[in-house]
Amino acid sequence: MLNRLPEMMPTLTEMVGDIGNPKPAALAKALGVSPRTVHRWLQAEEAAPRCALLAIFWLTRWGMSLAYCEAHNLAQMHAGMAACTKQQLEQARAAHAAIVTELEARLELLGRIGDFGAANDPAPPPRRGVPALPVIAVPGEASQPSSASSSTSTNHRKTARFNRAS
Q: Rounded distance, CA 108 to CA 118, Å?
């Protein structure tokens, strides 16, 4: 920040003239010094300290112009930084969208390959209209063909025993 202080300034009388030639008492009150001190500075009996010259400089058109230029340049710089950040955000969003699209395509491919389930998934219940599983004879049990209804119930019992055994 110290490099932004003006290196060259107009004379004290030029700066006081630029701010409207205030009375020495008003200038002394603003700077926190005595009116006699301001009078000596204006009469060039002694040089005004740099801090007093800087305080008056920022009130002149030259100081305001310098401050305005600095503010404008900073605003331009920050606007550029904001535009750059916005562009980076859009690029990141596009890259993110591309990654999401690729992952969705992989997921869709895996879904097309098939879901065969796990070996330990429970068996689904029998669906209506699907023929019953064939009855496998269990050694040691005699199959007794009787009426159709008892044959069907026997088949279901044998199938159920066979499923539990395996």
A: 19
Q: pTM score, two decimals?
A: 0.52
How many Å apart are CA 98 and CA 105, to the nearest integer?
A: 11
Q: Where are the domains of the chain?
A: 8-59, 74-112
- The CATH number, out of the four listed (1.20.140, 3.30.450, 1.10.260, 3.30.420), of the domain defined by the range 8-59: 1.10.260
Q: How far apart are CA 97 and CA 116, in angstroms?
A: 30
* CA dist., res. 39 & res. 46, Å (int): 10
Cα–Cα separations (whole angstroms), residue 71 to 1, 147, 155 = 13, 103, 93
DSSP helix/strand/coil, 164: helix
Compute CA 5 distance to the chain's CA centroid, rounded to the nearest angstrom.
Answer: 37
Q: Rounded CA gap, 122 and 65, in Å?
A: 83
Contact yes or no for 52/96 (Cβ under 8 A) = no
List the end-to-end C-alpha distance of the chain, in Å, as a whole number.
85
Residue range 101-142, pLDDT digits in tens: 999 999 888 877 776 667 777 777 777 776 666 767 777 766
Structure tokens at 57: 């400089």
Distance CA 47, CA 123 (A): 102
